[in-house]
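Q: How would the structure tokens look for this protein?
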Amino acid sequence: MNRLRITDRLKAVRERAGYTVRDFARALGYGEKFSSYRTYETSYKKEELPLAMVKTMLPLLVGRGDPPITPNEVWNLAGVTAGVVGLATPAPAKPPPPATVPEQDYGNQVAIPEYDVTTSAGPGMVPELCAPQDGLRPVEHWNLPRGYVAAFTEAPDMLAIIRVAGDSMEPDYQAGDRVLVDTAHRVPSPPGVYVLWDGYGLVLKRLELLPGMDEPRRVRIMSINPAYSVYELTLDEISINGRVVGKWTWK
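A: Here is the predicted structure in token form.
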């Protein structure tokens, strides 16, 4: 018997728990951008879901449905098995394929758009968002080998490039740096550097999703420069445009 694809398994357990796509996406922290979650049920290519995502699903799914969903069913979406005390242990590993040197198809390029918006690494005043679906016209395209870009994101066609302003993320991010943003990654898990609209401007900050079950979830928003204060907002008070996965450094 053929094993169900991960997309079908995720959809089945979500429906069994009684969630609509929109409600489940909101519960996972996607806000109104439920289409970003929907890709995991429709076009996700890997055999297992990201472990961090499955950890977030656990309290939302376990015990719901008929019969009640078990922790092991949820952990299995990430390819791990739940122990009796809730610890995850890796499932039996598949035998590794014979060692080969992969051939990179450098003729297959991805055109990454650069947008004429500036993320303020400090208090910002730019209301536009950087994601392609938000309607901005790119000012330039950067062509990079798709095989190379795939090492940084599962969605190369959702990458965007924008410039940094301000000094709150120094020394890691300097004014004028161009950063590569994965606009498909709009949930601050795991913690990292993200581009977001915080109600005042488009900013580049380190985000950390705070633990807890209260909705909406709270997010800690941090600068690297110690001269700037840490602050907290709820997920419905911000709009995350994507996770920073790289930057260009010129010497």
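Residues 6-90 form one domain.

Residues 83-96, 98-106, 122-134 have pLDDT under 50 and may be disordered.

Upvote if useful.
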